[in-house]
What we know:
Blueprint: E1 7-15, E2 18-25, H1 31-34, H2 44-59, E3 64-73, E4 84-94, E5 97-106, E6 109-119
Antiparallel strand pairs: 1-2, 2-4, 3-6, 4-5, 5-6
Amino acid sequence: xxxxxxxxxxxxxxxxxxxxxxxxxxxxxxxxxxxxxxxxxxxxxxxxxxxxxxxxxxxxxxxxxxxxxxxxxxxxxxxxxxxxxxxxxxxxxxxxxxxxxxxxxxxxxxxxxxxxxxxx
Length: 120
Protein backbone atom coordinates (compact mmCIF):
# COMPACT_ATOMS: atom_id res chain seq x y z
CA UNK A 1 0.00 0.00 0.00
CA UNK A 2 1.32 3.39 -1.01
CA UNK A 3 -1.48 5.52 0.43
CA UNK A 4 -0.56 7.22 3.70
CA UNK A 5 3.13 6.54 3.08
CA UNK A 6 4.27 7.23 -0.50
CA UNK A 7 1.36 9.62 -1.04
CA UNK A 8 -1.46 11.13 0.98
CA UNK A 9 -5.01 11.75 -0.22
CA UNK A 10 -5.86 15.42 0.27
CA UNK A 11 -9.35 15.12 -1.21
CA UNK A 12 -11.42 12.58 -3.10
CA UNK A 13 -14.88 12.64 -4.68
CA UNK A 14 -16.83 9.95 -6.49
CA UNK A 15 -19.88 11.05 -8.47
CA UNK A 16 -21.51 9.40 -11.47
CA UNK A 17 -18.61 6.93 -11.97
CA UNK A 18 -16.07 9.78 -11.97
CA UNK A 19 -13.42 9.99 -9.27
CA UNK A 20 -11.37 13.11 -8.74
CA UNK A 21 -8.60 13.03 -6.15
CA UNK A 22 -5.87 15.41 -5.08
CA UNK A 23 -2.76 13.67 -3.81
CA UNK A 24 0.26 14.92 -1.89
CA UNK A 25 3.49 13.07 -2.60
CA UNK A 26 6.00 12.24 0.14
CA UNK A 27 9.35 13.41 -1.25
CA UNK A 28 11.16 11.85 1.75
CA UNK A 29 9.97 8.31 0.90
CA UNK A 30 12.76 5.72 0.71
CA UNK A 31 11.91 4.75 -2.87
CA UNK A 32 13.37 8.04 -4.11
CA UNK A 33 16.78 7.12 -2.70
CA UNK A 34 17.09 4.66 -5.57
CA UNK A 35 14.78 6.18 -8.18
CA UNK A 36 16.91 8.22 -8.83
CA UNK A 37 19.56 9.46 -6.39
CA UNK A 38 19.77 13.24 -6.61
CA UNK A 39 17.02 13.39 -9.27
CA UNK A 40 13.92 11.71 -7.80
CA UNK A 41 11.13 10.67 -10.17
CA UNK A 42 7.88 8.86 -9.35
CA UNK A 43 8.21 5.33 -10.81
CA UNK A 44 5.63 4.35 -13.41
CA UNK A 45 4.60 1.25 -11.48
CA UNK A 46 3.84 3.48 -8.48
CA UNK A 47 1.66 5.71 -10.63
CA UNK A 48 -0.44 2.72 -11.73
CA UNK A 49 -0.63 1.52 -8.11
CA UNK A 50 -1.82 4.98 -7.05
CA UNK A 51 -4.73 4.71 -9.51
CA UNK A 52 -5.60 1.27 -8.11
CA UNK A 53 -5.54 2.49 -4.51
CA UNK A 54 -7.63 5.57 -5.29
CA UNK A 55 -10.22 3.30 -6.91
CA UNK A 56 -10.20 1.00 -3.87
CA UNK A 57 -10.66 3.95 -1.51
CA UNK A 58 -13.52 5.44 -3.53
CA UNK A 59 -15.30 2.12 -4.10
CA UNK A 60 -14.46 0.56 -0.71
CA UNK A 61 -13.36 -2.84 -2.01
CA UNK A 62 -10.12 -4.47 -3.11
CA UNK A 63 -9.13 -4.67 -6.76
CA UNK A 64 -6.55 -6.40 -8.93
CA UNK A 65 -5.31 -5.19 -12.29
CA UNK A 66 -6.54 -7.65 -14.92
CA UNK A 67 -5.26 -5.89 -18.04
CA UNK A 68 -3.64 -2.64 -19.02
CA UNK A 69 -4.60 -1.88 -22.60
CA UNK A 70 -2.94 1.52 -22.67
CA UNK A 71 -0.37 3.11 -20.37
CA UNK A 72 1.33 6.24 -21.60
CA UNK A 73 3.83 8.22 -19.55
CA UNK A 74 3.83 11.74 -20.98
CA UNK A 75 5.86 13.62 -18.41
CA UNK A 76 7.86 12.79 -15.30
CA UNK A 77 6.44 13.50 -11.86
CA UNK A 78 9.10 15.02 -9.66
CA UNK A 79 8.21 14.80 -5.97
CA UNK A 80 8.52 17.90 -3.84
CA UNK A 81 6.71 19.29 -0.82
CA UNK A 82 4.44 21.47 -2.95
CA UNK A 83 3.69 18.69 -5.43
CA UNK A 84 -0.03 18.07 -5.74
CA UNK A 85 -0.99 15.35 -8.18
CA UNK A 86 -4.54 15.34 -9.53
CA UNK A 87 -6.08 12.00 -10.44
CA UNK A 88 -9.11 11.84 -12.73
CA UNK A 89 -10.63 8.36 -13.02
CA UNK A 90 -13.67 7.29 -15.02
CA UNK A 91 -15.00 3.77 -14.56
CA UNK A 92 -17.81 1.56 -15.78
CA UNK A 93 -18.82 -1.85 -14.51
CA UNK A 94 -18.71 -4.42 -17.29
CA UNK A 95 -19.04 -8.18 -17.51
CA UNK A 96 -15.27 -8.72 -17.45
CA UNK A 97 -14.59 -6.24 -14.62
CA UNK A 98 -14.24 -2.55 -13.99
CA UNK A 99 -13.26 -0.67 -17.15
CA UNK A 100 -11.09 2.29 -16.15
CA UNK A 101 -9.77 5.34 -17.95
CA UNK A 102 -7.52 7.52 -15.81
CA UNK A 103 -4.98 10.30 -15.86
CA UNK A 104 -2.51 11.78 -13.40
CA UNK A 105 -1.53 15.42 -13.72
CA UNK A 106 0.82 17.77 -11.91
CA UNK A 107 0.35 21.52 -12.31
CA UNK A 108 -2.21 20.96 -15.08
CA UNK A 109 0.33 18.90 -17.05
CA UNK A 110 -0.85 15.37 -17.89
CA UNK A 111 1.83 12.93 -16.77
CA UNK A 112 0.07 9.58 -17.19
CA UNK A 113 -2.80 8.26 -19.28
CA UNK A 114 -4.15 4.83 -18.39
CA UNK A 115 -6.83 2.51 -19.76
CA UNK A 116 -7.41 -0.95 -18.35
CA UNK A 117 -9.57 -3.46 -16.50
CA UNK A 118 -9.62 -4.13 -12.76
CA UNK A 119 -11.36 -7.03 -11.01
CA UNK A 120 -12.46 -7.51 -7.44
